[in-house]
Design brief:
Low-confidence stretches: 117-128
Subcellular location: Nucleus
Function: Acts as a component of a SCF E3 ubiquitin ligase complexes.
Pathway: Protein modification; protein ubiquitination
Shape: elongated
Radius of gyration: 33 Å
Number of domains: 2
Structural class: alpha+beta
Strand content: 25-35%
Mean pLDDT: 77
Protein name: F-box protein
Largest sheet: 5 strands, antiparallel
Number of helices: 8
Helix content: 10-25%
GO cellular component, one term: nucleus
């Protein structure tokens, strides 16, 4: 009677096959395989396996292999480990902010004053002077949890002024616009002014009234915000109808931009930046 063939699963692979496979392993798998047993540790630590891996990943350290710094010479596996640790220490730590968007309140004020000329009587003589009409203003308050977060996770927020049946805000061609954007820490525990500036906006329909202001540096923050940051505020404008020389403000967009890339920073980077100023107790 024929003997049954031995199960393949019960027969270990030939030693030569393991060595051939080892030459095609990545560093992490090779290091893990060396922990199986003592014989594997000796085989998987051989220089002929680690030298090409070390050379490919850390060519700038290859001169250490031939430097007479120790006796016996340092193995390529050991040199790879040194290079890996050194590279990891050079990478900046990916810190997460403890401040969250729900901890913040955005307060945006828009005021406008008409600069039309007026005729004023002075000692019986008509004198032309600037007599601005009383200032009109709009203040928008948005809690962090009410702000729509961008799908790409950027520190940029669009606020619709026409929601909930709010009355339209109309400005004319000769009106000076002043904008102030403050960020308040919930509970009135801190405040940071992002923008305080003014000017005139374009009268073209669908134009944007763009205001920006450079912000102070915060050295503790990620590279994305430590290289220079501006606060960004845009008024979304549309025609007021009737051919009048006025436009209607229908939205406000606010954000934080890097002056290096002129792109909006990520939400986490923006929160890290604000955290430095809102949580800084050294005052």
């Amino acid at each position: 009677m024929a003997q049954p063939l031995p199960s393949l699963s019960s027969s270990p692979p030939p030693w030569e096959v393991i060595l051939l496979v080892a030459e095609r392993l990545d560093p992490k798998t090779l290091a893990t395989a060396s922990c199986v047993c003592k014989s594997w540790s000796l085989s998987m630590a051989s220089d002929h396996l680690w030298e090409p891996i070390f050379t490919a990943n850390f060519p700038s350290l290859f001169n250490l292999a031939s430097a007479p710094t120790s006796s016996p010479p340092v193995s390529f596996r050991r040199l790879f480990g040194l290079g890996y640790i050194a590279a990891a220490r050079r990478r900046p730590a990916q810190l997460k902010p403890t401040l969250s968007l729900s901890d913040l309140v955005f307060v945006i004020s828009i005021s406008f004053t008409d600069k039309d000329q007026s005729i004023i009587a002075c000692d019986g003589v008509n004198k032309e002077e600037k007599a601005p009409r009383p200032q009109s203003s709009l203040t928008v308050v948005k809690h962090g949890e009410e702000l729509p977060v961008e799908r790409n996770g950027l520190f940029k927020f669009d606020i619709n002024l026409n929601e909930n049946g709010a009355a339209p805000v109309v400005i004319g061609a000769r009106e000076e616009v002043e904008v102030v954007w403050n960020i308040v820490l919930e509970g009135w525990r801190g405040v940071f002014t992002m923008i305080e500036c003014g000017g005139r906006v374009g009268m073209a329909p669908r134009a944007d009234g763009w205001f920006s202001e450079e912000l102070p540096a915060a050295g503790c923050c990620p590279n994305a915000v430590s290289g220079g940051i501006v606060g960004d505020l845009r008024l979304g404008l549309c025609g007021n109808g009737g051919g009048s020389n006025k436009v209607r403000i229908e939205s406000v967009s606010v954000g934080m931009m890097s002056v290096v890339s002129w792109r909006y920073v990520s939400l986490d980077d923006g929160l890290m930046y604000l955290q430095h100023f809102l949580f800084n107790a050294n005052v």
